[in-house]
Design brief:
397 residues, mainly alpha, 0% strand
Length: 397
């Protein structure tokens, strides 16, 4: 199976990043108070939502638009993203006010700092894929989470009373390290960039309007937030915890495929590699391996006994995330086939289906057990993801 040369370094960097994030979470639970972790989690979630809407999928557009010179494309992405970041300030302020955290101005300032630095890091990841070496593209993914982990450990040892401020400082420094890659990547010449393939510039582009990209981003963000909020409201905090952990764990493989396969192919402008469907099947098998490891950890009591309730979720979540692997492996195709607009519209419709499946029991007043509900959600989500994948892999008429 022929893979892009940059795929292995990016996959290893993604795994390193995931490992550092897991260790960061364990460090928080062990060395920081629940109050500090809770405040940090709320502020970082507000910042992530703010940043995601401000970007409006600009990193993907930066990768897909091959008719623009990289530094020119970066300036356009930065300008529009920073403008949206400013426009979204009232929405971020409303979210902070709703959180009920004290010291409103300070909390909003931290959220703004994290959103700004994280925005720079996400753009740097796309730019290095397009305009730098594979080693640099891998480093920009791996070093920021590792930096945040090391700073958090140092802060905890030197400043034990730091609380949420120490965690916020660690995250900010990590994002800042990632954003620094914007500087050398802008100046890098084509001789140091990843190898590109001969697809005509006009054949690969992101021709979606800013409004459509915002709608797509907003629908994804709303679905992600609603998923856990509605699950907690419908089935309780423990059941929401099972769903959240499995989404994070099993969702790692689709995320890695998107970063190490689809994004690399967009950066290279390449189609001449292994079939996306085979890559997706391979990812689904790797996801099955993770699910089996999780089942073994529960059965052999490597985890607390309270996590045994997660086992019934494993199979439906495996089907869901396995289908997500197939779509992730095909996610470069809309931009290489002129289907970006149609794909975004289909993705928004898919988000709408998920929201209806989530909220139907609450809206219509009928009762589903958590297991029944997750099977409905996972089953319909799997069918939708596979349908999108089949459509993308069909030759364009």
């Amino acid at each position: 199976m022929k893979l892009p040369r940059a795929s292995l370094p990016i996959a290893l960097a993604s795994a390193t990043s995931m490992g550092a994030q897991v260790l960061f979470s364990l460090l928080m639970l062990r060395l920081f108070t629940p109050q500090a972790v809770g405040e940090f989690s709320v502020i970082s979630q507000v910042a992530f939502f703010w940043m995601t809407l401000a970007l409006a999928q600009s990193p993907l557009k930066l990768l897909a638009d091959r008719h623009l010179e990289p530094s020119q494309a970066l300036r356009a992405a930065l300008r529009s993203s920073l403008l949206r970041l400013a426009w979204l300030l009232p929405l971020a302020a409303l979210a902070v006010q709703f959180s009920g955290l004290a010291q409103f101005a300070q909390v909003l300032a931290w959220a703004g700092v994290l959103a700004l630095l994280q925005l720079g890091w996400y753009l740097a990841q796309a730019l290095t894929l397009k305009n730098a070496s594979a080693r640099s593209a891998a480093a920009v993914r791996a070093l920021p989470p590792v930096t945040a982990l090391l700073v958090a450990a140092l802060v905890c040892s030197l400043w034990p009373q730091a609380g949420a401020t120490g965690l916020l400082l660690s995250a900010a420094l990590g994002y800042a390290v990632g954003a620094l890659w914007l500087l050398p990547a802008r100046r890098r010449t084509a001789s140091g960039a990843l190898p590109t393939a001969a697809i005509p510039a006009q054949a690969q582009s992101d021709n979606r309007s800013t409004t459509l990209r915002l709608l797509h981003t907003g629908a994804d963000a709303l679905t992600g937030v609603a998923l856990l909020l509605v699950w907690q409201r419908s089935h309780g905090a423990a059941q929401a915890g099972y769903l959240a952990v499995l989404l994070r764990l099993l969702g790692f493989i689709p995320s890695m495929i998107h970063a190490a396969w689809a994004q690399v192919l967009l950066a290279q402008g390449s189609r001449r590699h292994a079939s996306p469907l085979w890559i997706g099947v391979g990812g689904a098998l790797a996801t099955a391996g993770l699910a089996m490891a999780c089942a073994v950890a529960v059965q052999w009591q490597w985890l607390a006994a309270s996590w045994a309730g997660m086992l019934p979720y494993l199979l439906p979540m495996l089907l869901w995330q396995g289908a997500a692997c197939v779509l992730a492996a095909s996610s470069h195709l809309p931009f290489q086939q002129g289907r970006a607009i149609a794909f975004s519209r289909a993705a928004i419709a898919f988000d709408g289906m998920q929201l209806l499946t989530l909220g139907a029991p609450l809206m219509l007043g009928f009762v589903l057990s958590p297991l029944e509900h997750v099977w409905w959600l996972a089953g319909l989500s799997s069918a939708g993801l596979l349908a999108l994948s089949i459509w993308l892999n069909r030759p364009k008429a």
